[in-house]
Write a structure and sequence with these properties.
alpha+beta, Phosphorylase Kinase, domain 1, five-stranded antiparallel beta sheet, three-stranded mixed beta sheet
Amino acid sequence: MEVDVRAGLQKLAARLGGEGATLTEAQRLSGGASMETWAFGFEGRDGPERLILRRRATAFDEETARSVSLATEAALIRATGANGARVPTVRHLCDAEDGLGEAYVMVRVDGETLGRKITSDARFDGVRPALARQCGESLVAIHKTTPPPGLKLKAVNGSEELDRYEEVYRATGAQRPILELAFQYLRRHVPDPVEPVLLHGDFRNGNIMFDPEKGVAAILDWELAHLGDPAEDMGWICTNSWRFGRPDRPVGGFGEYADLLAGYASAGGLDIDLPRVRFWQMLGSLRWGVMCLTMYLSWRDGVTKSVERPMIGRRVSETEADLVVLLEEGL
């Protein structure tokens, strides 16, 4: 069923801001076919509010999906925020009365999320040297949070992730020598399992809001949250695909491994060594390569007509170049 989001936001403004509250802005910011993000504001009985609506535009089956429900996202943001994580404040979890479908509302946080601006814009020159350490510190509050009871969170370890993405890769019928070699190498270097912790699941430059004066302002986009090895979150932000033109700075294109690990340790995190992080970094490049490959094939085979798919799909060659470097260097 088609949803008139703007009309829904006006109704939501009255519910949140009281009788007579007036919607003052409503703009869709981003999102694909399944997820939407809207910036909106209203003038209510307690004054103006600037908020963000995150809503799912299509049906969702939590039993089969890789991602979590938006209600789970909101619960995790609240729980990690209460534990000291740098996250937005959840203002409202939408229900049937709102008529917006599966959605929740956050208080808007000011800052920048465009990865290339974080790595190169002069506004961030002063704070950039501190960002890797801040990212390490930020992860501890997440990893030490006990998920609220009743949430459905998948648990994943290194071997299972390799199994999952090799199954996807084999199903494509593709033969990519570098991907084949990476699967073999990683199979031989899976780290010993550790007690799983809550993971953000997509912790990278592009999903973190940065303030040019303070640094990390808010950690966003929690749809891939799950339980697993804390080094997984650290390895993902180090994956070269999220360095935005600065391969010389392994952490998000703005910092060094040592600062990430030091920040994590200083905030009370577990002792994690660099080879474990680099295992997950290499696995990150491999799985992103497999994902890019499947996006291209979905366009080639006519499953989707979106030009976005082949544009992202061509990046499989970038991940192969990353993997060659990692294989030469070793963990």
